[in-house]
Amino acid sequence: MKVIIIRYSEIHLKGNNRDFFESALISNLKNSLKKFKYEFARSNARYIIRNFDETVLEEMIEVIKNVFGVHSLSVAEEVETDYEKISEAAIKSAPSSGTFKVSTNRADKRFPIPSMTLSAEIGGKILEKYPDLTVDLYNPNNTVFIDIRENGKTFVYGEIIKAVNGMPVGTGGKGIIMLSGGIDSPVAAYMMAKRGMSLRAVHFHSFPYTSMQAKQKVLDLAKIIKKYALRITVDVVSFTEIQTAIHEKCPEEYMITIMRRFMMRIAERLARQNGAGAVITGESLGQVASQTLESITSTNSVATIPVFRPLIGFDKDEIIDISQKIGAFEISILPYEDCCTIFLPKRPVTKPRLSAVEKVESALNVEELVQNAMSNIESVTID
Amino acid sequence: MIHYFDNCATTRVDDDVLRILNDYAVEKYYNPSARSTFSMHVANDLAVARENIADKLGVSAGEIYFTSGGTESDNIAVLGALRSKRGNIVVSAIEHSAVFNAVKELGSKGYEIRIANTLTDGHIDVEDFLSKVDEYTVLACFMHVSNETGAVNDVKSINASVKSKNNKTVTFSDGVQAVGKIPVNIRYLGVDLYSFASHKIHGSKGVGCLFVKNGVKISSLVFGGGQEKGLRSGTEYVGGIIGLAKAVELAQKRLEVNTADFVNYKKVLRDCLAGIDGWRENCKNDVSPAIMSLSFQNVKGEVLLHMLENYDIIVGTGSACSSKNKQSRLVKAIGLESEFSEGVIRISFSKYNTLDEVKLLGDKLIYCVNDLRKTMLGQKI
To answer: How many CB atoms lie under 10 A from the CB of residue B303?
Structure first.
């Protein structure tokens, strides 16, 4: 019978917390696999999936591979621990050309043939079947694994498929990701989900200055993030009043800095409302005027909870690579106005002094504007 | 109620057309190529539709081919018409993307692409166009009505001039914004190829038409069961095609009334807008009555469009995409000064518009433009 063996990553390092991490991983796996029918079993340091429909095997692998916390997986033949059955399965799992070796793990010491001997004998049988193969014990192209379990069953498989690693989502606290619709923020969300963070997103929307398509684009990006973060709700904040107020009352060159300070304040309040402990942004040092150290200082100074910037040391190319890998890029580059471009000053300040920013901002009734924005939020849960 | 002024983008399906679509979807749904008598009746209906359309456009039924829409018609025309492996293609700068990008594709295959200038109101610069035609010109593309400004080109005269310079040049005019909106007799125009689409004239999406003049050879891009004399295989969208015949018929019947109405609508809007400064009508002469392209100084067209949405008014932007690097080819071609170039909107009428709606549009336009200008040029400390 074909089974899927799932191995998990760093979790086993967590000592007493292991149960917490494992139950999160299992629940995430089951959640991701809910459209499939299968049986799930825990075995030591791995999970076994049995009795699934083989026509959806590839689809299931694709899903499992992308669950954070999974280190690798294999599709194995599970057979009775019986010499003939093992060798038959091993021949099936073997490559037909190139170099190979057989690696045996004998957890069940009642099986009479020692590991080394069994590997050599099965290797011989594989060679008889495929004369083009060569044995290479040190650096083979392929390895046929034989895993003799204590329950009288043996797993035989020829491939270890690498998965995303990371930590199970839900084990790393909760963060509010500021989702703009560009390339960077979905990648930042992915990076934090990879470290086990649950996510909620905030998007600032300025209808009619930005279109409903721009908002839809963000929801489409959230759908991509959900694949990895498993659950996500987007708080769409109407930002028009704040933007026009800043535009009216503050010098043009401070537009972006002050806008970002408002966004940060609102994100932090949303974090507190929703039990989140951090704000996440897609900033990368020096990428644009609002991402210089001075600009980040101005934005950061209104936050009292940690602000995570997982892309801070990344080049644009590196960010684009991840964006493509997670399937967000095509959506991110759709050309709609976002709230940062419409009032874009010709010459933004690149090194704003905090004291100057605060002085400029004092022309606004910050608290009232933030409260109005907080009472005008549409929350969209992505399903 | 929605006040729809984006009829260049697409139109509401006419109730009579809808009945036809429905009829051929649930009752006479038989495949016209199958052998039963029921199928034969459907095939006959299809033939009648073809004849009716040909008749309305002054051509013969054998010259009419049905496709999946304007884009496919344009692509077949551009990509299927070439007989020689080299030469140049002359194309106007304002062609629809379905033509322009198909021509660009030929550029990558070794043909020389010559792009003719546009006058400031969106008309083709005929002199420039003709100067680019020579003995090696294999294809000339000049659209009938600009989808962005409504400029109506003198297709008959351009065609005659091209042919007199090189009578082997295949001539193609995209008539998507012309058929049903201005008088069109393809035989009179004289072009070799002419395209149009059903959904621009209250027919359904997914149906288009390509006229191929008798004697002009054109090759297929789609292979299969040999429908449409092998030019465009695939089971016909029967309801859509018969609906198209109905749509053409209805449009022609109403053409005079529509024209009078739309000319009046434009006048009403001009009178309304006389109250504000900093706007221009991008094309005033030789223009389709159905299209009015306007530019407003210091206003972003897309933002204006979204503001009008708040009043259930739908207009189009002059350019499909005004954002970032993607300045419209048209805006570039007609050279709008930069403070006007972002503020283009396109208003396009249909028979469903009323005078009251047009007045509402005028009022709200003024209100939104003033409001936007106030915000965008807002008071500074």
So the answer is: 25
Task: Tell me the DSSP string of B184-224.
Answer: --HHHH--SEEEEEGGGGTS-TT-EEEEE-TT-----SB-S
Q: Tens digits of per-residue pLDDT, A290-343?
A: 788 988 999 999 999 999 999 999 999 999 999 999 999 998 888 775 555 556
* Separation between Cα atoms, residue B255 and residue B250, nearest integer Å: 8
Residue of A nearest to B325 (CA): A335
What's the pLDDT score for residue A12? Answer: 60
Q: Which residues of chain B, if any, have pLDDT below 70?
A: 318-331, 333-334, 377-381
Instruction: Count how many pairs of residues, chain A against chain B, have C-beta atoms within 8 Å.
Output: 41
Q: Read off φ and ψ for residue B188, nearest 5 degrees.
A: -65, -40
In B, minimum Cα distance to A212 occurs at B306
Q: Over the Cα atoms of chain B, what is R_g?
A: 22
Spatial separation of the C-alpha atoms in residues A376 and A351, rounded to whole Å: 32
The per-residue pLDDT for B380 is 42
Q: Is the Cβ pair B307, A208 closer than 8 Å? A: yes
Q: Does B375 lie at the interface with A, CB-CB under 8 angstroms?
A: yes
User: Residue A9: what pLDDT?
Assistant: 78
Question: Distance between CA atoms of A148 and A153, rounded to whole angstroms?
Answer: 6
Residues 6+ apart with CB under 8 A from A114: A106
Distance of CA B310 to the CA centre of its chain: 28
Amino acid at A206: S
Give the residue from B14, B197, B6, B162 showing the smallest Cα distance to B92: B162
Note whether B347 and B148 are within 8 A (CB).
no
Those residues with Cβ within 8 angstroms of residue A323's Cβ, 6 or more apart along the chain or in another chain:
A183, A186, A187, A329, A332
Is B309 in Cβ contact with A341 (below 8 Å)? no
Give the closest residue to B314 by CA, choosing from B347, B291, B290, B355.
Answer: B347
pLDDT at A219 (0 to 100):
95
Q: Are A2 and A77 in contact (CB under 8 A)?
A: yes
Q: Does the beta-carbon distance from B303 to A209 stay under 8 Å?
A: yes
Look up residue B349 and give its two tokens.
């009428």
Question: Distance, in angstroms, between B308 CA and closest chain A CA?
Answer: 9
Contacts of B66 (CB under 8 A, 6+ apart): B50, B207, B208, B209, B228, B232, B236, B237, B241, B244
For the entire predicted model, the pTM comes to 0.83
